[in-house]
Design a protein that fits this description.
With 461 residues, this protein is an alpha/beta fold. Helices cover 33% and strands 26% of the residues. It has helices spanning 14-23, 38-43, 45-66, 78-102, 181-192, 212-224, 315-329, 358-363, 379-383, 412-424, 429-434, 444-460, and strands spanning 2-8, 28-32, 106-109, 111-114, 120-125, 128-139, 143-145, 173-177, 196-200, 228-230, 234-241, 244-250, 256-261, 263-266, 270-272, 284-285, 288-289, 302-304, 343-345, 350-355, 368-374, 390-396, 402-409. Strands 1, 2, 3, 4, 5, 6 and 18 form a 7-stranded mixed sheet that branches. The protein has a 5-stranded antiparallel sheet with strand order 19-20-23-22-21, with helices on both faces. Strands 10-9-8-14 form a 4-stranded parallel sheet, covered by helices on one side. The structure holds flavin-adenine dinucleotide. This is Dihydrolipoyl dehydrogenase.
Length: 461
């Protein structure tokens, strides 16, 4: 069979690329080795957010007692949590399958390998191989967890984000190696389930790529839920000791530490899946496939998108790149403008950011100002007893252009879209201050902060 475009990988990069190309009138084949929806739907965004909802409900029930609402004894059923997660995944997966059918996209279940001509894909399923050809290829094969070279790791049972959602029982204790986004979200889930959680992070702050103050507030709030953190710390050795795992390492002061844990989760980053294109002479950017702003690789007929090209490893970035790749592979001309990328961490409290952080601005030597509004001054946050957090704006002083926003608190992963919109439209602090925000909402804190900044700017003039 010959197609205009073959897409390899059915995650939020691949299926969006396939749908977009089909809507542009192209004949499209989509090849997926496992489950439609990729990491995001099956082992990432959706299972984690489904279980974070469980954690949120547990926290609300616990708080209810303080607020004079009496409930029964709390009990958790991991089996029911898994059932709910699986039904959410199934429902969304069926939705994707339906869209593919509607657009008459040919779905091939199997492992795809692009042959050296750059136009043929060999698809292997159940030991049988078949070949299809295409004018253009879009590689959207995603990424898998990095397993660090820690002594003894090979000989203990450990979890990754690929296996943690299939645990047979709630562990009494869980040590998480890696305090990045995935690590802290999973820490929140298991702490709510009354697992004793310890997070060990090599950098000096958790969520290392985010604003330091936001990381500080998050750490404090998670510590209040009983989660223990060791930052600036490195795990050197792990070993099975009966039913427990012993974790040894070096802390921030260079002192040796050792702890015992019932379960171990490794979350230290993700590496690209490039074996599907190992027979092509593709230029690389470190381990990732190198692309230009049209998502073109160094091989003319081949495009690449999503986690396999590195950068922000986020589902919405993969989907944005998918639209660009599909347009170019269909003969249109489109480039990606990824300056405004919202980033969300769905912990309790949530963290969300867009654009540049204060520390990043300092690192780049930019002449910017920052201002912060603490949610302790926000009526909606206080009424919900969720005022541990803030909104922060990084702006350029001359025109007041907003260059970055970071928020910690309730609903901020929803609120960040409006901050992204101001930035996308190159909005200024003045425009933000003039907008009417509804009251009482947490989002009005953004408007209030903009008014403070405006007063500050006017005083200077
Ligand atoms: P993937 O989703 O990884 O899809 C790639 C697909 O390609 C897979 O289905 C794979 O089976 C298939 N494949 C690979 N090789 C082949 C081959 N040779 N032949 C056929 N098929 C192949 N991002 C967010 O934006 N928000 C979140 O809240 C969020 N939460 C996350 C939570 C966790 C626990 C994890 C692990 C990730 C999370 N992410 C989140 C990241 C997000 O999942 C990824 O950025 C996103 O899935 C990348 O999409 P992709 O299409 O590039 O790759």
């Amino acid at each position: 069979m010959h197609y205009d475009i073959a897409v390899i990988g059915g995650g939020p990069g691949g299926y969006v690329a396939a749908l977009h190309a089909a809507r542009l009138g192209k004949t499209v084949a989509l090849i997926e080795a496992k489950d439609l929806g990729g990491t995001c739907l099956n082992r990432g965004c959706i299972p984690s957010k489904t279980w974070l909802k469980h954690a949120e409900i547990i926290e609300s029930i616990e708080k209810a007692h303080e607020w004079g609402i009496e409930t029964g004894t709390l009990a958790f059923s991991l089996a029911k949590m898994k059932q709910r997660k699986d039904s959410v995944i199934m429902r969304l997966r069926q939705g994707i399958a339906g869209l593919l059918r509607q657009e008459k996209i040919a779905l091939f279940q199997g492992y795809g390998q692009v042959l050296p001509d750059g136009h043929t894909v060999e698809i292997v399923a159940d030991g049988k191989a078949e070949r299809i050809t295409a004018e253009r290829m879009i590689v959207a094969t995603g990424s898998t967890p990095v397993i660090p070279p820690i002594e003894g790791l090979d000989s203990v049972h450990y979890e990754t984000s690929d296996t943690i959602f299939d645990l047979a029982e709630i562990p009494a204790s869980l040590t998480i190696i890696g305090g990045g986004v995935i690590g802290v979200e999973l820490a929140c889930i298991f702490a709510a389930l009354k697992t004793e959680v310890t997070v060990i992070e090599m950098a000096n702050q958790i969520i290392p790529s985010e604003d330091a103050e936001a990381a500080g507030v998050l750490r404090k709030q998670l510590q209040m839920k009983g989660i223990r953190f060791a930052t600036g710390s490195k795990v050197d050795h792990v070993a099975q000791t009966g039913k427990m795992i012993t974790v040894k390492g070096t802390d921030a002061n260079g002192h040796a530490f050792a702890l015992e844990t019932a379960s171990l989760l490794v979350c230290v980053g993700r590496k690209p899946n490039t074996s599907a294109v190992s027979q092509l002479p593709l230029a690389k950017n470190g381990p990732f496939i190198a692309v230009n702003d049209r998502m073109e690789t160094s091989v003319p007929s081949v495009y690449a998108i999503g986690d396999v090209i590195g950068g922000y490893q986020l589902a919405h970035v993969a989907s944005a790149e998918a639209i660009v790749a599909a347009a170019n592979a269909s003969g249109l001309a489109k480039t990606i403008g990824c300056r405004v990328v919202p980033r969300c961490i769905y912990t309790l409290p949530e963290v969300a950011s867009v654009g540049i952080s204060e520390q990043e601005a300092v690192k780049q030597g930019l002449s910017v100002k920052t201002a912060r509004f603490d949610l302790i001054g926000n009526g909606k946050a206080i009424s919900a007893d969720e005022f541990a957090g803030f909104v922060k704006i990084v702006y350029e002083e001359r025109f007041g252009e907003i260059l970055g926003v970071t928020m910690v608190g309730p609903h901020v992963t929803e609120m960040i879209s409006s901050a992204s919109a101001y930035m996308f439209l190159e909005g200024t602090v003045e425009e933000l201050a003039e907008m009417i925000h509804p009251h009482p909402t947490v989002s009005e804190s953004l408007g209030e902060l903009a008014q403070h900044i405006l007063t500050r700017l006017k005083r200077k003039q």
